[in-house]
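User: structure tokens for this one?
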Amino acid sequence: MDRPWIKPALGAAARAAAAAFVYSNRDWVRYQRLERAGIGIDGVVTGKDGERRVVHYSFEFKDRLHDGSDQAGMGSPEFDAIEIDDQVVVFFLPQDPSVSSLGHPKEHLKTQNRVIAWALLLAGLPLFWAIRRELRRF
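Assistant:
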């Protein structure tokens, strides 16, 4: 019994998994670096972008003011609970303060790792099913 839809379905599953992996991976390396070598410091909320739900913040390190922006709610208060001039925890790399995140990077990594795991699982199931089916033919 030939099923011509199997190859396109597997291809679509693989592309969806790759897209989810790339999407979740866009900041994964930054959060990994911050988890390993970053330090936490108090920062101040300087603005909010309600459309993208991004919080803008600044922090002082070595007598210089640095700024950044990030998603709220992952190791920091939720977006709606944060107001301008609120104090927040910011993690940054001391050797490169332009690399920073709002809240603890471990919380960001948990979220991104979940997306990666689901993408691999969802892509893996159709692949497993197809391989199992092909092996049954022998």
